[in-house]
Design brief:
heterotrimer, A mainly alpha, B alpha/beta, C alpha/beta, A: mainly alpha, 18 helices, B: 6-stranded mixed β-sheet
């Protein structure tokens, strides 16, 4: 029906990337993603950051293993260089307090994490600058690195050739003409930095992805984490350790009887479950920010200024925040219940009385091993998924959400 | 429906559980279980499309090239949140989004309303329909989606453009029973001067031209043109061959513009217009005048599409009883692929109609989309010239309408035998 | 209304009917396959020899004895492949008591010149047998009690073969010919006449004070008072050695009188072999016969008569295999093979009581003592000063190849079996990997996300003419036709008038030598020439 149609309105709040970057919901989701990433890394370090206690040499000294602990590799590097140089007190150029060398537990990771944060902040800040300035800064940085690497060598070499008044190569058995030694310090420094950077790939790529709005970087972060878990699983697999035993600490197949969180989850399972949940929260939050901002970015200019679009965008972000908290809490509880479901199965089987089958099931070796836990967990999850058709969850969730206070009101 | 992400997550979850079992690695199993648990819980939350949607348009009918303002008001009348919904107002692809967007992602609380406003430009004539409104629930984490639609449609008609036509050549010689605006080229009671003639007894005394009498010494009277309404017949060729050219420049498109413009012109002069469109069949709109007829003609022209191959003679034969005697007949046709045109024109002219053939140059439209060898083009043009000359020879006034020539300009280039 | 045959054929010819029929046929074949498959797994006969059922022919009493002695018992309902997962095999005993059915298995890679083995033995799959032998190699103990059943694969892995025939013993039977005694004065004499029973925790008493070393406060000094004070709790896994007799309070007798029920015997060619650590510790009497011809009767075939007679004993019915010589290494794996699946059934094991429908009382026997001694020998491997099993000590009963009393039980076991099999057997794992890979590929290739909605403005449309006619319009004849039409039109002639026109008149009308030549000369024209002609025709019209 033809009628008067108003034009799109213009409000004070817009959906331009510049203003969205400082929107509290966006920052909140990014902060959630960052914190879960850091927590995930610390938890990974706690679970996979140590070698097997039997991984020692004949003198009882701990050996290197590919655990998620950069200090192990740095120690190895330091020892190799120390023994090569004959200096038992040899120290790597970057001080220990920055790399975490010498610390135990999560203390090994704190400073590298802070460094990753600072580097990310710098990188994101640089990306916000004009392309010309960005190019200049990058070129400047590279020049400094190259100068630091080769500057002393070149200066010393040219000065040597001038003072000796002859042409010679910088590598010589004559100490006065051997300038290659000047390369050693920067090379060690770069190697040390490289080692820390390699171990911290999930962290710095993740942070850069979250704050630099790069799906590719977050993909790298998740990919490297999963690859590490896969490699760890493979290298600690018994069929592999028979041939190659690198001394990794395998995850215990026996599930501890000790419970936590009010008897909801076993102490063995909790860190593993926590890592899985953190990985999910991190990836979902990290990608969600980019997905939502992409939507806003692609809107035509008139829609970016339209208060209707702004309001609905706020609703979307609020919904995401609520679901992040609500759904992941439920997912955690559901997974915990699922991994505890074997007990319930035993109780149910016991109801059937003392038949041959119930007796077998109650003493089943399968239920003592992870097999039983996992199969019963899958059964529980099938049940949970099926609940969708029994209970109108969508109505319940929608109704609860409708009763939640409006997150926009304080703004 | 599961998204690709959900399907991959499910497959990964199961694979991780099984591979974990193979490698006796509980971590992999737990990740797998977490994945599946994530899917199971997310399956509980789904959105709904119980929305009240109202679309308001700035106009129901508009001319080709005009802008259409659209507002879509969406209200969540239920008592729960909609969850994340994508709203997409289906707009015909022939319309251009001038400003705004017909798409919005919403998450409406209970009782909330939002509005999508956008402006469309309509470059093509036709009957169009906006809607239905597509709704897609998308899970917050992009795991599931569910598509719905609200069957709310708004119909609009985009009329062909109406251009100014110079008052030039249409003069019928046959009087009509109704008095009207078009001056017929026959003497009779009217207001416009026609000629001088000698006085015959019975002529009204007031008609004597005293100046002429003074000059010649003989009684001369002024004859006036007779005021009358005439039926103008427009025959529009909508056969399949009329589609040749681009979407905006082809014989049919130009023909609709010409028909709309001529009808507007004549109706404005309070003449009656009849429209016959022939493609695979004949659609005939009997002669009438006024705004209502104008609307009918424009609506009819908005809907024509190239199809069929009905010969012109079949049209003229079918309409012969309806043609008013001596009325002008406009034939708007590229004249391609119809061997009956000369006969039809000869018949019409023979019956005393003034036949005006407005012929968009089909070969030149074809040249816009195809590379015609120069030689072939010249020969085809010569053949077309022959055809037009032949029609002129039958007494028709022939207009060869080139693509880049305005209608008013073209109408002035009447080719007579 | 009755359907005509023609209608019926017409309906049968429809695509829908054919599709429906194909689907129906597919599901029928699928159901048949499933039934055949399940038929090999689910066998609706009476269940027996289960450690979790209490009939006279089950072995639940043995299990409850173990539980009361503080040993954890477990059932294995899926597959012995899980033995790979056992982290403390030296404290674990795996008991196979009667194997009643076959398993589902895939072809397997052999690693030899045959490359692939399509057919598995009955009973355990090769992977399962490997898991069992690997378990023994890692220090585990197995007790295999079977007669004609499906455990031949396990026995063969240790170089033992079942004869597959029933054993009759005229010299040592009781109740009826089905019950045969196997008497052994010392079941710990392996390679010499010196008993190795000193190595058994329930027998070792270094100072001979009647107080076994593991609980003797000073095993090197005899005469520690309070011998009678050994409680069942102290005696732990050796509690069955407490006699309750004041004179001989502890049973130090290393001999066993085992009562077998319808036993078979091992093939004499492949049975005990001291050189290979397979010690024959139980034999039938010299009056025993193997029913080689399976006629259920004792038949003697004279030599050269061509008549196959039964084989005369003695035959080996109990073999003990140890990884270490004379079973001296207590942590090394052991395997006990007895050619009778019912050695430990409740009615024989617990001869003092009657079970279920049992009416006949069974004679006193040492089956219980033998079984518990075998368990104690396996579990009490370290010198920790106790006769109780360690924290990880466990006995696992293989219930995977036992019939279940309910269909649900069989299904449950089947599911577990499939899962364990597909995550433990290399061929099955390969197949599973392939399936997962294909599933991934299928998801990646076939699964698409819903298309993003966006308005596409598209009025791209090309109304092409018939391009084939372009060539026709560049022919000389067509050009000639166009010229003649032009001449006719401009001279306002009808077709008939024009056709009747003399050539001279026409030449006059054209009045252009080039065009006249073009009209009247029938020859080929090059493109350039035609172009020139066309140009001339255009000019001609304007004259």
């Amino acid at each position: 029906m033809a009628d008067e149609v108003a034009l799109q309105g213009e409000g004070t709040k817009t959906l331009h990337l510049k203003s969205l970057r400082i929107k509290w919901q966006v920052v909140a989701i990014q902060t959630i993603a960052t914190l879960t990433l850091i927590w995930l890394y610390l938890q990974l370090g706690s679970n996979f950051g140590a070698c097997d206690t039997t991984n020692v040499d004949s003198e009882g000294a701990a050996l290197w293993c590919p655990a998620l602990d950069h200090t192990l590799t740095l120690d190895l590097f330091e020892n190799i260089l120390g023994s090569e140089s004959g200096d038992s007190g040899f120290d790597l150029p970057i001080p220990d307090f920055l790399t975490g060398q010498g610390n135990d537990g999560p203390g090994r990771y704190y400073m590298p994490i802070i460094l990753c944060g600072l580097i990310t902040a710098g990188w994101v800040f640089l990306n916000l600058q004009a392309p010309q300035l960005r190019r200049r800064v990058i070129l400047g940085g590279l020049s400094v690195l190259i100068l630091f690497l080769a500057g002393r060598l070149l200066l010393g070499w040219f000065w040597g050739m001038l003072s000796n008044w002859e042409l010679y190569l910088p590598i010589s058995s004559d100490a006065s003409k051997n300038h290659a030694e000047t390369l050693v310090y920067p090379l060690i420094l770069y190697t040390q930095f490289f080692i820390v950077a390699v171990y911290m790939i999930p962290l710095w790529t993740g942070m850069m992805g979250i704050w630099g709005l790069s799906k590719r970087m977050i993909g790298w972060s998740l990919g490297t984490t999963l690859v590490y878990l896969g490699i760890h699983a493979l290298l600690s697999f018994e069929a592999v350790t028979v041939y190659i035993d690198l001394g990794l600490n395998p995850i215990s197949p026996q599930i501890s009887e000790k419970m936590m969180l009010g008897g909801l989850v076993s102490e063995t399972i909790w860190p593993l479950l926590l890592m899985s949940i953190l990985m999910l929260v991190y990836s979902e939050s990290g990608f969600a920010v980019i997905r939502n901002l992409e939507y806003a970015f692609r809107l035509p200019e008139s829609c970016k200024k339209d208060p209707e679009y702004v309001t609905q965008f706020d609703n979307m972000l609020n919904g995401h925040l609520i679901h992040t908290v609500g759904i992941f809490t439920l997912v955690s509880i559901c997974a915990m219940f699922a991994l505890k479901f074997d007990d319930l199965i035993l109780d149910i089987v016991a109801i059937f009385g003392s038949s041959q089958w119930s007796g077998q099931v109650q003493e089943s070796l399968e239920l003592q091993l992870t097999y039983g836990k996992v199969i019963s967990a899958m059964l529980m999850l099938i049940f949970v998924a099926g609940m969708k058709y029994i209970l109108p969850w969508q109505r319940i969730v929608g109704f609860i959400e409708s009763r939640l206070p409006d997150l926009n009101s304080p703004e | 429906m599961w998204t690709r992400k959900a399907a991959l997550m499910m497959t990964s979850g199961i694979a991780l559980v099984l591979i974990g079992m193979m490698m006796s690695n509980f971590q992999l199993m737990v990740i797998g279980i977490a994945f599946i648990s994530f899917l199971a819980i997310n399956g509980w939350v789904s959105g709904h499309g119980e929305l009240h949607i109202v679309r308001t348009l700035s106009a129901d009918n508009l001319y080709k090239g005009d802008d259409l303002y659209v507002e879509l008001s969406i209200t969540n009348n239920s008592r729960r949140r909609t969850q994340l919904l994508e709203i997409f107002d289906n707009v015909p692809h022939e319309m251009k989004m001038k400003s705004g967007l017909n798409y919005m992602m919403i998450n409406l609380g209970a009782g909330q309303t939002t509005r999508i406003r956008y402006v469309l430009r309509c470059p093509l004539r036709g009957h169009f329909s906006l809607g239905p409104v597509s709704i897609r629930f998308r899970n917050t984490f992009n795991l599931f989606s569910n598509e719905m639609f609200v069957d709310h449609r708004s119909d609009i008609i985009v009329f062909p453009q109406v251009r100014d036509v110079e008052e030039a050549m249409v003069r019928s010689k046959t009087p009509k029973m109704y008095t009207g605006a078009t001056t017929l080229r026959t003497p009779g009671p009217g207001t416009e001067f026609y000629s001088l003639r000698e006085y015959v007894p019975g002529d009204p005394f007031k008609n004597i031209n005293w100046k002429a009498f003074a000059r010649t010494g003989e009684l001369m009277v002024n004859e006036k043109c007779r005021d009358a309404v005439t039926d103008v017949f427009l025959l529009l060729d909508s056969r399949d061959v009329s589609r040749i050219g681009t979407v905006l420049k082809n014989p049919l498109e130009m023909g609709t513009i010409a028909a709309a413009s001529l009808s507007a012109y004549f109706l404005q002069r309070r003449d009656s217009i009849a429209l016959a469109v022939y493609d695979d069949k004949l659609s005939y709109l009997p002669a009438d005048g006024g705004d209502k007829q104008h609307f009918k003609i424009l609506s009819s022209l908005a809907g024509v599409a190239p199809r069929g191959n009905m010969p012109l003679q079949a049209v003229t034969n079918a309409l012969a009883p309806r043609f008013s005697r001596g009325s002008p007949v406009f034939i708007i046709s590229s004249l391609e692929g119809d061997g009956t045109v000369p006969h039809a024109v000869r018949d019409l002219a023979g019956r005393g109609h003034e036949v005006i053939v407005l012929s968009p140059s089909s070969i030149d439209y074809e040249r816009l989309v195809s590379r015609i060898p120069r030689m072939s083009y010249e020969v085809m043009k010569l053949e077309r010239q022959n055809r037009l000359t032949a029609l002129a020879g039958f007494g028709a006034r022939v207009i060869d309408w080139m693509p880049d020539v305005e209608l008013s300009q073209a109408l002035l280039q009447v080719k007579m035998a | 209304m009755a359907m005509k045959p023609a209608d019926l054929f017409a309906r049968m010819n429809t695509h829908q009917f054919r599709r429906g029929a194909t689907l129906f046929a597919f599901y029928v074949v699928l159901a048949l396959l499933l039934v055949t498959l399940l038929g090999s797994f689910v066998n609706p006969t009476d269940s027996q020899l289960s450690a979790y059922d209490n009939d006279w022919d089950d072995i639940s009493k043995f299990r409850s004895d173990l539980n009361s002695m503080g040993v954890d018992t477990h059932s294995l309902v899926s597959s012995p492949l899980l033995l790979h997962e056992i982290k403390n095999p030296e404290e674990t005993v795996f008991i196979i008591a009667g194997v009643e059915k076959d398993t589902i298995s895939l072809p397997r890679f052999t690693g030899d010149e045959n490359v692939i083995q399509m057919k598995e033995n009955d009973g355990y799959t090769t992977s399962e047998v490997e898991a069992i032998t690997s378990f023994v190699a890692r220090g585990g103990t197995i007790i295999v009690m079977d007669d004609f059943g499906y455990s031949s694969g396990v026995a063969e892995a240790f170089g033992i073969e079942y004869s597959g025939h029933k054993l009759y013993d005229a010299g040592a039977w009781t109740l009826d010919y089905n019950y045969i005694w196997i008497n052994s004065s010392d079941s710990y004499k392996y390679t010499s006449n010196i008993s190795n029973s000193w190595n058994h925790p329930c027998f070792r008493d270094s100072d001979g004070d009647g107080f076994v070393d593991l609980i003797d406060p000073d095993p090197t000094h005899p005469g520690v008072p309070g011998t009678m004070a050994i409680s069942a709790e102290q005696a732990g896994l050796c509690a069955h050695h407490i006699t309750g007799n004041g004179a001989t309070p502890w049973d130090f007798d290393p001999g066993y009188d085992l009562l077998l029920n319808s036993p078979s015997a091992f093939d004499p060619e492949n049975s005990d072999d001291e050189e290979k650590n397979r010690y024959g510790l139980g034999f039938s009497s010299t009056d025993s016969y193997l029913d080689i011809n399976d006629d259920g009767d004792l038949t003697v075939g004279p030599a050269g008569s061509g008549f196959e007679g039964d084989m005369q004993g003695p035959f080996t019915v109990y073999i003990k295999y140890c990884l270490s010589r004379n079973c001296e290494d207590k942590t090394a794996g052991k395997a006990h093979f007895i050619s009778d699946g019912s050695l430990l059934i409740n009615s024989v094991y617990d001869y003092e009581n009657l079970y279920g429908s049992q009416e006949t009382s069974i004679d006193q026997n040492d089956n219980r003592k033998w079984a518990l001694d075998a368990i104690a020998e396996a579990i009490l491997y370290d010198e920790n000063g106790t006769l109780s099993g360690g924290e990880n000590a466990q006995v696992i009963f293989d219930e995977s190849l036992h019939q279940q009393t309910s269909f649900m039980g069989d299904t449950y076991n089947l599911i577990y079996y499939l899962l364990v099999y597909f995550t433990s057997d290399w061929m099955a794992m390969l197949l599973l990997f392939l399936t997962l890979f294909i599933a991934f590929e299928a998801v990646i290739i076939r699964k698409t996300d819903p298309e993003p909605w966006r308005h596409v403005f598209s009025i791209i449309y090309y109304g092409f003419g018939d391009s084939r006619r372009y060539g026709y319009y560049s022919r000389a004849n067509k050009v000639k036709q166009v010229l003649l039409s032009r001449v006719r039109n401009l001279n306002t002639l009808t077709r008939d008038e024009f056709d009747a026109l003399p050539a001279r008149e026409l030449q006059k009308m054209i009045n252009d030598p080039v065009l006249v030549k073009f009209v009247f000369e029938d020859r080929n024209y090059s493109l350039e020439q035609l172009v020139a002609v066309v140009k001339r025709i255009k000019m001609w019209g304007r004259k």
